[in-house]
Give the backbone structure.
Amino acid sequence: MLAAQFDNCRIAVFGAGVMGVDIATMIVSQGISVTVVDVNSAALERAREGIAKRMRHAALAGTVAEGVEPGNVTIAASFSFDSETAAVIEAITERADLKAGLLAEVSAALPAGIPVITNTSGIPIEEMAGWAARPAEVVGVHFMNPAYLIATVEVVRGPSTGAAALDRVLELLARLNRKPVVVRDSPGFVTSRLLHPMLNAAARLVGAGTATAQEVDALMEGCLGHPVGPLRTADLIGLDNLVDSLAALHERTGEESCRPCGVLEEKVRNGHLGRKSGQGFYDYGKEPW
């Protein structure tokens, strides 16, 4: 019954950056079709190849649903909602002004009953709900990077989020073989509130000359069990996304640990954005992820 209600459906993912492409890969790997929407034509050109590359990685990692045909991928500069639309996922850059404009436009055009899911890493869901035509249909789902490999997701219910929208999102996540953990609304929720200041502190240590990126990561991996090290994690997230998320957290919490450090800001100014640009704390050569 659960699977049947999502047969022949389509999910629209707004944002063709690293996170949007990762989320789109996760969706099609579970047999649901996706439309990736972005105003940046260069990002759209990279998106289809990026999804294909990640699908190969997902297959090798064993996270593609068995016995299920992968969903179709559509790349578009705009999207028209119809009876096949099961949900909308907002995965654009972590800037409140851009997210506000998108949520206002999308929610006004969206038929009632279709949840608007935001992948924000730090902006409170209640704040975002205020930008939507129907606040009760806005739900936070913070997918972890890479979304097509990590099954656990942080689901955030804002004060205005309705029970029907939350239930619908949880049903969809079950169909996508995700494991939701529902938390209360707050700036940064749980994962970003813990992770992003730690990444900031790791970068600050490198800037102070206390240790190299490799040394910081080696100690965090070997001594504290971090899977890949904080600075490789930062490169995977995207240093520009990390700076934006930290700035959003600092603005909303006032905590100095969330103020982006000078090393991160300098790397972003120099275009060293992490894995997606080919260089961040590490050099990834000419094949960014």
Observations:
- The first strand starts at residue 10 and ends at 14.
- The chain has ten helices and eight strands.
- Residues 41-61 form the longest helix (21 residues).
